[in-house]
């Protein structure tokens, strides 16, 4: 067996599950890398999607449980940053009451929300059945979408890196980031 087969699936599962549970690790990056490796024939795309979706669902449920059992106490405790933690509850509770299922589903595609949505859902006492359903739908669709896009784009990304070089890609990424920042500032106003 290849190194990708021996390490790829367990690493993908561990990173996606940890990120989904609230640990800031590169879970989505692992899924992208696994999709690219599947495009190169080193991993099986269907298995990549199943592993990533399962890890996302399990990790999110662990994060929900952590949030439900101890997250509120953590946010309400006195001490450093108590005001900011209280603000999380003041904003989070009404938000999750109105938009909880959407936040759980769409949060899969938003880095900050992907890492903390499960905790916030538990802390704000979102109904577990609703959480589970939207978490599963989000995890499956996220794993399939990102995995397939990485699978399809994998050869193109490899060709660009080979032909243009990593340095040119970094320059393009910086130019795009600066352009997006300037656009955001212009639209945000004074």
Overall structural class, as computed from helix and strand content, comes to mainly alpha
- The radius of gyration over CA amounts to 19 Å
Report the end-to-end length measured between terminal Cα atoms: 58 Å
How many runs of DSSP E, i.e. beta strands? 0
Instruction: Give the low-pLDDT segments.
Output: none
The major β-sheet equals: none
Mean pLDDT reading = 84
How much helicity do the residues have? over 70%
**Total domain units:** 1
Q: Count the DSSP helices.
A: 7
Pfam families: VTT_dom
Subcellular location: Cell membrane
Protein name: DedA family protein
Keywords: Cell membrane, Membrane, Transmembrane, Transmembrane helix
Compact overview of the structure:
The chain is 85% helix and 0% strand.
Note down, in words, how this protein is organized:
The chain is an all-alpha fold. It has one domain. 85% of the residues lie in helices and 0% in strands. The protein has 7 helices and no strands. The chain has helices spanning 3-21, 27-39, 45-76, 82-106, 111-123, 128-164, 166-188. Helix 1 (3-21) packs parallel to helix 3, helix 2 (27-39) packs across helix 6 and helix 6 (128-164) packs across helix 7 (166-188). The longest helix has 37 residues, at 128-164. It starts with a helix and ends with a helix. The mean pLDDT is 84. Residues 25-148 form the VTT domain.
């Amino acid at each position: 067996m290849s190194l990708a087969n021996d390490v790829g699936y367990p690493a993908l599962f561990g990173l996606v599950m940890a990120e989904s549970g609230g640990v800031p690790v590169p879970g989505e990056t692992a899924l992208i890398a696994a999709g690219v490796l599947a495009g190169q024939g080193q991993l099986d795309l269907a298995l990549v999607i199943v592993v990533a979706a399962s890890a996302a669902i399990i990790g999110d449920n662990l994060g929900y449980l952590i949030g439900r059992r101890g997250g509120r106490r953590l946010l309400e405790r006195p001490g450093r940053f108590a005001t900011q933690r209280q603000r999380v509850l003041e904003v989070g509770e009404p938000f999750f009451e109105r938009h909880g299922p959407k936040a759980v589903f769409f949060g899969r595609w938003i880095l900050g929300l992907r890492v903390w949505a499960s905790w916030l859902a538990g802390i704000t006492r979102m109904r577990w059945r609703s959480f589970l359903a939207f978490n599963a739908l989000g995890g499956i669709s996220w794993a399939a979408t990102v995995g397939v896009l990485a699978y399809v784009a994998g050869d193109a990304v490899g060709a660009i890196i080979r032909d243009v070089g990593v340095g040119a890609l970094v320059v393009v990424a910086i130019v795009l980031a600066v352009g997006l920042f300037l656009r955001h500032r212009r639209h945000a106003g004074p």
